[in-house]
Structures are given as structure tokens and as C-alpha cells.
């Protein structure tokens, strides 16, 4: 008679054989994890760049284990071919490890790609099941390899660069908003309106680590895209109005010329309405709200004077950016988007003109004046 213990001894090996376990899994060091992807187009060929970080350096910095390395290395790969598929295959063949694209956080496009092959490149990237639609999208006129090789400050891992955290870095004192793949596909394919791809440039000398002056990336404008076609590049100086008409809550500094007063403004949202009835063209009213915090003031200007100057500065920024967009045949504020939803026939009859943004209403509430006393 077979005892209970003997039955278990016979049964356990059989169960183990039926368990699949993790035999096909790969360790973290058995793959090359791509963090950023760059695409260029030159002389009829696609050029693919990849940026990979060493996980050991990231783990030490985020986990607090061990000493921080003297320098966090950046591995940049590059291959070219007449098609994107072949360029990726050539890069995979040249790699010493299998490439894994599920960790991509940044997609960097050259100016040539944005101007010539934007729709094709975004369509190809969007069809890859591993690349997430939350990946941040940037453009650049710089050498893609140089941008990807820029280091973070304090010898931190490359994933601490502005490219990987634009939602935080661009939320203060910046007119350009971060853009991810989902936003680009949604806004870039609309029949009316436009979207802005942030442009990355390299600067040197703004920061100094001991005797070194590292190169750092920063956003200095953007490429205007409508119907997945580029309208061209617009520098940051021409985009100031976007810092006020934004769906994202922002904190922006505004220097008032009166008595060298510096005001921090918290943008609380805006509303665009079409003036009706429409008779001789499209005319829109913009209403925006902001809260003001007085950071610095050499004197004590009257409250009414300060509010008036803040309103005028914001109105000037909004109007100038609107006119700059019209010069490039672009609707930077997407004024026509709601009109297209409600009354598409109007857009077939009328186009945006210089006087289309006919009423800019600004509400300013000063909630904190520090130690200053205002009349």
C-alpha cells in the first residue's frame, strides 16, 4: 500500500515538470534599454539614434545604495537606411545586446524630419506596440547625437535632463508647453488650429561644475504644425502670448516697467468665445484670469496703476503672438477649433484676420503683496 508521503514524493516532480516558471525571462543586464529615440532625414536616408542609460547608475542614485559614480555614461547608437524599418534592423544587428523599446520616454525629431517626413515618421513610431503614447516629443536643429549626449548636472543619470521632465521644467516662466505623442497625434491631425513641437537647443556656460562648463539642453521656441505639416520654426521671443493662453496651470514672472516692479502671475485659465452674430468676419473674445504675487518692488505704486499695467502687458503679449502666428498662416491659440465643431460652414466663408482677436479681457487679482502697502 502506497503511503501518503510516497504519493507526495511521486506527485511533486510531475507538478514541477508542468510548471512553465520564468524560463524565458531575461535579466535586467541581458537587454539594452532605450530611453530616448532620435530620427533624422538626410540625402534620402533615415538616420536613427538611440540613447541608453546604465541602470546601475540610476539605481544607485534613486535607491541611495553605494557611492555615486564620478560620471553617468550615455550610450548613443546610430544607423541609417533608406527606410526606418531597415535603419532599426541595422542598429539591432550592430548591438551587443537585444534592444528593448518599452522604456522610451523621449522622441527627438530633427528639423529636416519635421519639415519633410513628419507624418511618415510619427506613423511608423506610433505603430510600434512597445513605444508609449506618453513619450515626450521634441524637435531640434542641432546635431541629434550632440543633444542626446548632453549630461545632467551633478553627474546624475541622463534621465534627469529637461527632456525627460518637461512637464515640471516648463511649468514656470515658460511660454512653450510640453508635448507628448498622444497630444501630437490628436492636435496635429485636426483640420483647423495648430500645435507646437518644442525645439531643443544646446547652451554652454550658463552653469559651471568646478572647472567644467557642461553643455545643457533647453527649449528656445517651437515648430508650428498643422494637419501634420510644418509651418516653420518660431523663436521663444515671438511666443510670449502662449504663457497666458494655456490650458496648463503655470507660474510666470512678469516685470512691470513702473518702479521696477516684478510680479509673479499664476495663470488660472482662459475662455474663448466667438462674437455673434457673424456678419463681416470672425471676431473672438478672449477672457483670462490670473492671480498676482508681488515679488519685488522698488516703490509702492497704487494698486489700480499696477493692475492696469499688468493687464496691458498681458494684452500686448497675446496680441503680438496672435499676429506672429498669422504671418505664418497659423492659428496658435486654436481660435477656430470650437467654431469648426459648432459652425464649420463659417470657416469655409471666413478666415482669420488681424482684427479677429478683437477683445482681450484680463482679470487680475493681487492676492499677496508681501510687506508692501498699496494705495
TrEMBL record:
One GO location term (cellular component): membrane
Compartments reported by the entry: Membrane
Keywords attached to this entry: Germination, Lipoprotein, Membrane, Palmitate, Signal
Major place of residence: membrane
Domain (Spore germination GerAC-like C-terminal): residue spans on this chain: 222-364
Keyword Membrane among record annotations: yes
Every Spore germination protein N-terminal domain range: 26-201
An individual GO BP term: spore germination
Topology with respect to the bilayer: Lipid-anchor
Similarity field: Belongs to the GerABKC lipoprotein family.
NCBIfam families xrefs: spore_ger_x_C
Protein name per the record: Ger(X)C family spore germination protein
Amino acid at each position: 500500500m502506497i503511503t501518503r508521503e510516497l504519493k507526495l514524493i511521486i506527485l511533486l516532480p510531475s507538478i514541477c515538470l508542468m510548471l512553465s516558471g520564468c524560463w524565458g525571462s531575461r535579466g535586467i543586464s541581458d537587454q539594452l534599454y532605450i530611453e530616448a529615440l532620435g530620427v533624422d532625414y538626410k540625402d534620402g536616408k533615415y538616420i536613427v539614434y538611440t540613447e541608453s542609460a546604465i541602470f546601475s547608475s540610476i539605481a544607485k542614485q534613486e535607491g541611495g545604495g553605494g557611492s555615486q559614480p564620478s560620471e553617468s555614461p550615455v550610450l548613443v547608437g546610430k544607423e541609417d537606411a533608406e527606410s526606418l524599418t531597415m535603419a532599426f534592423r541595422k542598429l539591432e544587428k550592430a548591438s551587443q545586446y537585444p534592444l528593448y523599446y518599452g522604456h522610451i520616454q523621449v522622441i527627438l525629431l530633427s528639423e529636416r524630419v519635421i519639415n519633410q517626413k513628419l507624418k511618415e515618421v510619427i506613423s511608423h513610431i506610433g505603430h510600434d506596440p512597445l513605444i508609449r503614447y506618453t513619450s515626450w516629443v521634441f524637435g531640434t536643429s542641432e546635431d541629434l547625437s550632440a543633444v542626446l549626449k548632453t549630461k545632467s548636472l551633478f553627474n546624475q543619470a541622463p534621465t534627469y535632463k529637461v527632456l525627460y521632465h518637461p512637464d515640471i521644467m516648463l511649468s514656470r516662466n515658460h511660454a512653450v508647453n510640453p508635448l507628448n505623442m498622444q497630444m501630437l497625434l490628436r492636435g496635429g491631425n485636426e483640420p483647423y488650429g495648430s500645435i507646437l513641437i518644442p525645439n531643443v537647443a544646446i547652451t554652454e556656460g550658463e552653469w559651471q561644475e568646478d572647472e567644467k562648463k557642461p553643455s545643457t539642453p533647453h527649449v528656445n521656441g517651437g515648430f508650428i504644425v498643422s494637419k501634420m505639416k510644418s509651418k516653420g520654426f518660431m523663436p521663444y521671443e515671438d511666443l510670449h502670448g502662449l504663457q497666458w493662453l494655456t490650458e496648463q496651470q503655470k507660474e510666470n514672472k512678469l516685470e512691470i516697467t513702473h518702479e521696477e516692479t516684478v510680479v509673479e502671475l499664476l495663470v488660472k485659465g482662459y475662455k474663448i468665445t466667438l462674437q455673434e452674430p457673424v456678419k463681416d468676419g470672425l471676431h473672438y473674445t478672449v477672457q483670462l484670469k490670473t492671480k498676482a504675487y508681488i515679488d519685488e518692488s522698488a516703490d509702492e505704486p497704487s494698486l489700480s496703476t499696477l493692475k492696469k499695467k499688468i493687464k496691458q502687458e498681458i494684452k500686448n503679449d497675446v496680441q503680438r503672438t496672435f499676429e506672429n502666428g498669422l504671418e505664418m498662416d497659423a492659428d496658435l491659440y486654436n481660435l477656430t477649433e470650437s467654431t469648426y465643431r459648432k459652425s464649420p460652414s463659417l470657416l469655409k466663408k471666413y478666415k482669420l484676420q488681424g482684427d479677429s482677436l478683437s477683445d482681450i479681457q484680463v482679470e487680475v487679482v493681487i492676492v499677496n503683496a508681501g510687506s508692501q502697502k498699496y494705495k
